[in-house]
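Quiz preparation item.
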């Protein structure tokens, strides 16, 4: 009898595979970073093929560390960086372009164009989101408009879209070799600007506005059900859960009651507040998003406040400035001074998110004296 469950955590800077026993104890974990690609200022990309390779590597690594085989797992679930956008050829399985990361600001022109008719909140009543570079819809439109031949192939039904959860599940269930399952869950779909929060389905008005053919889009499923069986290192194991990273953290912290909230400090910083089965529109620049949906139960909604860069600033100090050799060094460095001397770093590398949603904002150091 299978005694364990596995979780693929595909994040912005790394991929992890964790194995838990029946009591929730971690019995094996493996983690690997992937490359952050910056073609131009404000542009952030990932290589989808590298992410898939890392996923397989950490699965094999964690199984080995735990001293078990895939057959010992009852099921595997996915959590993921949410709005990062992949478009790939359904016949070859290859992405037409690097993934556009949620932090990427190249789609500001798309935002400005769509905002001319109805302003930044043009689609907020349906999608719960302001027009911003953050979300997948603008990224899909940019890829179709800027990659040679993409629009024609999309219209012919030859391209597929997915946030990273969809990309991983499609490959995990066989991709082109095994009839990969093309699905997403309600939490990830709610981050595209293409899903109607009430119907929990793709919305024709939104698809038309963004110029996205419905044939590209994955089926929207509950966050917990068996979507298909894995191939490869996890061969035969049911793929049975899918939840965007911040919603997964909210669920994992057992914020099940209305009014419960969690705050996560990772690449960015995200506070989610459970509003139950009620969709609460924000008057203060927050997002209305789907928390999760379990089977046939009603969807649970959340309000969310988002900051794009928090932990990623430490990574920037390490990789870009060379100020520290490893991330933990930043704490020792901070402890060498009594206070900040009134100086602040606003790390708006990808614009300012909640409550301002200003894609044109940039990082600033303020409060300097001689």
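Solution:
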């Amino acid at each position: 009898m299978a005694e364990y469950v596995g979780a693929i955590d595909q994040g912005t800077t790394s991929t992890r595979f964790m194995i838990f026993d029946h009591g929730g104890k971690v019995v094996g974990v493996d983690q690997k970073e992937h490359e952050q690609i910056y073609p131009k200022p404000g542009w952030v990309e990932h290589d989808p093929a590298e992410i898939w390779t890392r996923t397989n590597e950490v699965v094999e690594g964690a199984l080995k560390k735990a001293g078990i085989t895939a057959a010992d797992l009852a099921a595997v679930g996915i959590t993921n960086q949410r709005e990062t956008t992949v478009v790939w050829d359904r016949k070859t399985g290859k992405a037409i372009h690097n993934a556009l990361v949620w932090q990427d600001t190249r789609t500001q022109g798309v935002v400005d164009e769509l905002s001319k008719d109805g302003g930044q909140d043009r689609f907020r009543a349906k999608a719960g989101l302001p027009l911003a570079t953050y979300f997948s819809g603008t990224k899909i439109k940019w890829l179709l408009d800027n990659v040679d031949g993409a629009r024609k192939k999309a219209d012919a039904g030859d391209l597929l879209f997915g946030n990273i959860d969809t990309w991983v599940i499609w490959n995990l269930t066989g991709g082109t070799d095994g009839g990969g399952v093309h699905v997403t869950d309600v939490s990830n779909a709610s981050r595209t600007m293409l899903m109607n929060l009430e119907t929990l389905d793709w919305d024709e008005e939104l698809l038309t506005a963004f110029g996205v053919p419905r044939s590209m889009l994955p089926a929207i499923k509950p966050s917990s059900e068996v979507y298909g069986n894995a191939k490869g290192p996890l061969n035969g194991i049911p793929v049975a859960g899918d939840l965007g990273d911040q919603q997964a953290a909210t669920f994992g912290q057992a914020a099940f009651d209305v009014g419960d909230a969690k705050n996560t400090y990772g690449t960015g910083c995200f506070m989610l507040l459970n509003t139950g089965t009620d969709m609460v529109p924000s008057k203060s620049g927050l997002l209305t998003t789907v928390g999760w949906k379990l089977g046939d139960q009603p969807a649970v909604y959340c309000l969310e406040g988002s900051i794009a860069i928090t932990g990623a600033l430490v990574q920037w100090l390490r990789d870009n400035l060379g100020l520290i050799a490893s991330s933990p060094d930043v704490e020792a460095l901070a402890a060498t001074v009594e206070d900040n001397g009134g100086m602040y770093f606003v790390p708006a590398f990808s614009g300012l998110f909640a409550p301002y949603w200003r894609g044109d904002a940039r990082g600033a150091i303020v409060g300097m004296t001689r």
